[in-house]
Design a protein that fits this description.
The protein has four helices and no strands. The longest helix has 26 residues, at 2-27. The protein is mainly alpha-helical. The radius of gyration is 20 Å and the shape is elongated. It has one domain (2-97).
Length: 116
């Protein structure tokens, strides 16, 4: 449950980042870079898909890679605002890999491997 909440938080933060980015760039009298918007939208979509899928690892990792590229590209300006989304996605990925605390079915010995 927690990884889904974190993936949702990453997606929502990414949407907020996009809104701030567009507002800042337009406030400076420029047009947003289309490639940067596309990369960020893909990262946000990957995190959103991870929030609703049963096996979100691939989507979280894809969002992390794309989000990291956006952060590096905008490092000297607004890119650092994506760091909380990256942290949430990384934490969701790490928590999703943790083995379950619930006991599984008992292991059965293979045929012929028992003691005599």
């Amino acid at each position: 449950m927690i990884p889904r909440v974190l993936a949702t938080a990453a997606a929502l933060w990414g949407v907020g980042f996009l809104l701030v980015y567009v507002a800042v760039v337009r406030g400076q009298g420029s047009q947003p870079a289309q490639w940067f918007l596309a990369l960020t939208v893909l990262a946000v979509l990957a995190w959103a898909v991870a929030a609703v899928r049963q096996a979100p690892r691939v989507w979280l990792l894809l969002g992390l890679v794309l989000g990291a590229c956006c952060t590096l590209a905008g490092l000297l300006s607004i890119g650092l605002l994506l760091v909380p989304a990256l942290a949430a996605a990384a934490l969701a990925l790490a928590l999703g890999r943790r083995p379950s605390a619930e006991p599984g079915p008992p292991l059965r010995a293979a045929a012929g491997s028992g003691r005599r």
